[in-house]
């Protein structure tokens, strides 16, 4: 999608203007209505359009203007019109005209600041995402006609300057969405690692550890998960040194199970195809590193991805097996479908041991119990550090990637006590997300840490958020980038 910032609309574009609740016209909406002889106002009064978020109303070929169509887009209450509301309105504008036949969508933001104009472009661009690389017979009228999004602004140069960092974040979100969308026969651990290596073009340092290197490090917990697959497990280490000093890095760790059958504790067939996105946590970390490098963030950061495929062949890990983690702690494997925590156990210990980070944040599509607890609009955050948790919650509010803090009660650790090893990998159904987090806490070695269970939010099927088309969300990229930008850049 081509993004342009312009001083005025020219040619037969599809023009979008903002209207707040109560049919409260923005300045550009008023101007376009006057140019069209009041046609827009009459159309609004004759229908149910109020200006609420998500609403739109289109006039085709209105008299008196050159525009091919004018679309009024609901912007919600004027006194609550923040960045997220602007992004949603711009995304709704794209949704309203994408199949109209128009090739150019012009969002008139001429009464907004240059930063807001850039934000409008950001919201609209996020809404354009489609994963269609395997479609070969899709009818032309099913494909979006819009190829260019123009944003009208009073200061083109300033808007372009503000757009630079937002464009980098949008590209990173798309990178993460692509990873999550890929089928597992394409995106196995080795191919995933290869795609991460391509990000050296942005200035990232990328290192890949194979199974031989992991065995030398004693990563029996991670390696046990992948031993039933013909695909070799991988650890990907991505480093961005943008601070210009030797300050301790911020560390981000992602669960990357490229396909999860459940192993010997095999999942039901129905819905198993969704398990291609059991690597959503690692995609968020890869996307974050893409964003930091893309916008040249002034911070030192490391991203560690644990990439495995959980398959049930004759060499697969069995329920009842005992594995030794890199930390030296032993784990009784009760359920081979509680594999993500086994991957993260070694990835977290490796990260804190090698990089001595200021803090660690891990992301994982870890537990179905998180969906039961929070539904499909919130991810759960567990932390041993109140300050880090508060910073994450602040970034959550700013980006609309919703988090809810969950408890880590020590008394629940009894549920993961093992009779024959240091711990077991599942504590049963009660408080399943909490006991999973308590398990992970045993591998952070006292480092400030937060665990984000994104099982509810990695994939959307309802499309309720205008900037997030159905499918892969790329959840976590914006959240973590905002965390870094607001609190940790020099």
Structural write-up:
- This protein is of the alpha/beta class and 490 residues long.
- 34% of the residues lie in helices and 21% in strands.
- The protein contains 14 helices and 20 strands.
- The strands form 4 sheets. The chain has an 8-stranded mixed sheet with strand order 8-9-11-10-14-18-15-16, sandwiched between helices. Strands 1, 2, 3, 4, 5, 6 and 7 form a 7-stranded mixed sheet that branches.
- 53% of the residues are buried.
Radius of gyration computed on alpha carbons: 24 Å
Terminal residue distance: 33 Å
Proportion in β-strands: 15-25%
**Biggest sheet features:** 8 strands, mixed
Number of helices: 14
Poorly predicted runs are none
List keywords for this structure.
single chain; 490 residues; alpha/beta; eight-stranded mixed β-sheet; seven-stranded mixed β-sheet; 14 helices; 34% helix; elongated
Write a compact overview of the structure shown.
The protein is an alpha/beta fold and 490 residues long. It has helices at 27-35, 39-45, 83-97, 114-127, 156-181, 189-197, 211-217, 220-226, 280-294, 340-355, 368-374, 386-399, 432-441, 477-487; strands at residues 2-6, 14-20, 24-25, 56-60, 69-74, 104-108, 148-152, 205-209, 234-241, 250-260, 300-310, 322-324, 330-332, 359-364, 379-383, 403-405, 423-424, 449-453, 459-460, 471-472.
